[in-house]
């Protein structure tokens, strides 16, 4: 069997076609430099590709799409290059099992199997069934080491995975596809429809949530207007290390997230939006406000960038598309605290909230209508903790704002998800934060 191999700077998922095709020599140079490129495998004269592979060593990433004769993607494999440069982790895969040639790509009624693997041996296999019974079946995959990892091939020596999918004999020869377009790779922006390495979730308009008059939507409420932030109080961080964590989870290893800040006392405030909606049981229009974020303001300098804070076990090389890192809560609660006094502050929190000790020195409930609900303070160090309510359990990312010089300007937790900006009233788009 002969398979044609073509190379390009990118792969357009909507057009199912290469973007800026390139020669084998140019692709080899990009591979050596760690720059992204794709390899496209086809049967001679075939319309749909057998498979497409995206290689981007600078992103520690190799991705693979397998296609069927109808041009539908049937299998996705996400591989990662970690500490051992000679092998790749089969990090994440999804297989779709179409029930007929007319079934649309990624149809929700299509059975699928997802495998989520980690380098330490952990993993999860999820089988989403359709038809009678339906539901999901989750198991722990029992895989050999060679099923979790594969040797890193040299350029041009990748195995053809689609040969297994189609029941084909491994090809006896690869032929270089003709380059029909003499484009200069690297020039111009890659279209948004092109495949790219996975990215973690992005912060959204964090600055704008503290800017009165900005209009946003959370997908449920079509329009929400930002109002003046509510100043709640201050937090003392004499150690110079800020903790952001769930105070209601296991803290044997300390706080989940820490961020170095200059020692000092900082303002805590709360972002809010105004919402108007029709109340059916009152049969009238109702206007109310609700919180969207809490912030520890480190300086008055506007944040030029926002980055997701990582915990000690978070490895960005393992992140899949739209993945988040942050603190966990099973009691819909987070907190800002002085990490240098973490143990005594958490002990006071538990004694006051859980054990309900009367007249406890160093603990108070906050009843001012804000999202902040408890405060503790350590008299020995001067460090403080302020807990706040989230809108539910789960994982909440922590966003660190930095100035153009790289200094921390603020730390924010979005307690109600990531909203989207709406155009200004004159129709022009609102300037988005980075």
Question: Layout of helices and strands, plus pairs?
Answer:
Elements (H helix, E strand, L loop, with lengths): L1 E11 L4 E6 L1 H10 L3 E6 L8 E6 L4 E7 L5 E9 L5 E10 L15 E6 L5 E6 L7 E4 L5 H4 E3 L10 H5 L6 E4 L38 E3 L6 E14 L3 E5 L11 E4 L3 E16 L4 E14 L7 E4 L18 E3 L3 E6 L3 H13 L8 E3 L6 E6 L6 E6 L4 E3 L1 E5 L5 E7 L5 E2 L13
Parallel strand pairs: 1-12
Antiparallel strand pairs: 1-2, 1-3, 3-4, 4-5, 5-6, 6-7, 7-8, 7-11, 8-9, 9-10, 13-14, 13-28, 14-17, 15-16, 15-21, 17-18, 18-27, 19-26, 20-25, 21-24, 22-23, 23-24, 26-27
The averaged pLDDT comes out at 90
What is Rg?
Answer: 26 Å
Residue stretches low in confidence (pLDDT < 50, at least 5 long) are: 429-434
Distance between the termini: 50 Å
**What about the largest sheet?**
12 strands, mixed
As for the number of domains, it is 2
Helix content: under 10%
Q: Treating each run of at least 4 consecutive H or I residues as one helix, how many helices?
A: 4
Q: Write down the overall geometry.
A: elongated
Determine the strand fraction and express it as a percent band.
35-45%
Kindly name the structural category. mainly beta
Instruction: Please count the beta strands (DSSP E, at least 2 residues each).
Output: 28
